[in-house]
Fold each of these.
Amino acid sequence: VQLQASGGGLVQAGGSLRLSCAASGTISNIVVWAWYRQAPGKQRELVARITSGGSTNYADSVKGRFTISRDNAKNTVYLQMNSLKPEDTGVYYCNAVSVGGRGLVDYWGKGTLVTVSS
């Protein structure tokens, strides 16, 4: 599985961005799609997650502002980010978890940088 994240950039506080994660390869065994972020000097943290059944969950810090969604026809997962805050700044990573003969396997895309200016 290969994941390609895009959509990052520089935005003012209060603005919006939409991140995309395009997947290729054998994705039929993917059970969870997620976005993580890593701010400078901090550990990577989960931002949002969506299961193959469509269930979602979010970090408390982004609830009500971010929305994760999936377009199965395009093999793409999105993260719509509204009302952005400077503390949302960081590198955002797309993640996918598959289940199969090897158990659970994590796949990661290269990050895309989001910078929110105050």
Amino acid sequence: VQLQASGGGLVQPGGSLRLSCAASGSISSIGVMGWYRQAPGKQRELVAIITSSSDTKYGDSVKGRFTISSAGVKNGVYLQMNNLKPEDTAIYYCYAFLSIPEWRSFWGQGTQVTVSS
């Protein structure tokens, strides 16, 4: 199983970016997909997750600015990030909890998001 993430980059404060993550491999079903992030010197934290029934959960610092959506759960998820702030600068990691068929957690490679003028 692989999680392929893309869409990071450099953006000015107030700008937007869209991250994508797709899962591939012998997957029976997907329970949860989403994003965590880790800034230098800080612990990894929740950004946003979405379940197979489209329930969502967001980290407090991104509520109202970020939106997670599903492209059909097996095809991946998107994270639309608006009104980006310098404190959003971090490596963003795609996450999935899925069945292969036993249920396991998987992490993708990180993608760097830098918010700076």
Amino acid sequence: QAQLAESGGGLVQAGESLRLSCKASQNIFNFKVMGWYRQAPGKQRELVATITAGGSTDYVDSVKGRFTISRDRANTMYLQMRNLKVEDTAVYYCSGGLGSVVYWGQGTQVTVSS
């Protein structure tokens, strides 16, 4: 089993930056793939960015060039968000695949005002 805990959300103005963190309860490199998702009010959960155990990354087109996914050796994954837009407002969730199980954090709210 594993637990994931997000932090770093908040209220910012358009154009500003935020960094989200996702702390894992075990070695983060055990997860085959980890990712950030977001869910805006009234919308389906959307995959934002992924990082594989080998370090390959991928992003949804709407955040390419603005968001960066990364991880460190302290069992934490990050999502650096720059030039935030109002449409980035959502609850952001981290997830990780361990064996056949996908684990989720509790989510952190990001609100971008105009």
Amino acid sequence: QVQRVEPGGGLVQPGDSLRLSCAASGRTFSSYTMGWFRQAPGKEREILTRITWNDGRTYYVDSVEGRFTISRDNAKTTVYLQMNSLKPEDTAVYYCAAAFRGVKWDYWGQGTQVTVSS
């Protein structure tokens, strides 16, 4: 299972929106819980959200709840992160990850930089 984060990051202004995509290879995508993480300079990587493999339940950390939305398309083996109302504190490298049946994060995307600045 190889994760490839599609170009979608970049420099945006506060209040703007971005959508990140992460395409996975392999035929067992539907068996993976998918997640998005980020790592800001000088900080540890943190999980933002995940969507479960079996029932599509979602989870969000408080800092992005109501602004970010995770979704998945099993037919396209792709997971998305819609980010709205972006803030400067959202500036970070964003990573997608996959956990087989939600056990542990086995595979990681290469990361994409998102910078929110006026």
